[in-house]
Each structure stands twice: as structure tokens, then as C-alpha cells.
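SAMPLE LOG
Freezer: B-3
Tube label: C17
Construct: single chain, 126 aa
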Amino acid sequence: MKTIVAALMMAAAMAAQAAPAARPPQDVSLIELIANPARFDGKQIRVSGYLVREFDGDAIYLHRDDYDHGILRNGLWVTFAKDSPELRCKTLRYASVEGKFVAKERGHRGLWSGSIDRIARCSVSR
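STRUCTURE (predicted):
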């Protein structure tokens, strides 16, 4: 019995070492993402900006003025993870979001400068 328990503990320890640790998201600015999309493509990122949640227009912008004046290229399309409690993240606020950056996905009609997919964490500035 002791041999089986020891073997199971050894196997669990080896599996824990072999599994890659989840990397924390990289802090990056919207300007960096827009200027160098290939550099961040497919990476987990954390970015801050003006968050908008509306039909065919969920996005995060550099500034509120970019949203107000329809400068969509100064923003990124955003999608929230379906099971995320962050689906309630308030709109029309400055916020920080975490998700996977996808350079080629440009949102509805391809109007934005990329997208942040499967946002699982969102914190709104006060």
C-alpha cells in the first residue's frame, strides 16, 4: 500500500513540474497594441482605456473622445468570456481588461485595430 501511495505522489509531483505555469497577462498600452499588433498577437494582455458595451460596438478606446467622435481605429474590439462574471462590467467608464489579443480580428465590419478576446477580468476606474 505504501508503495502505491508513494508512486502516486511521485507521479503527481512530476505532472505538476511538467505542466507549464500559467503566465500572468502582460501589461501593455493601447498605443503599443495598435502600433505593433504582430508583437502581441495571441498573448494574454492587460490594457486600460475607455470601455464601451453596446450592440455591434463592444470596444475599448484610448480616450472617451475617440468613442464620442467615432475614431474606431483608436480602439480594440472586445469580447467577454461567456462564463465570466465580468459580463456585468460597466460601460462608458475607464477600465482595465485582461484577455487574449488577436491582431487579425477587427470586430464588426473590421472597423477596429484588433481585438481582445475572452476577457475574463475587468476592473472599472472610479
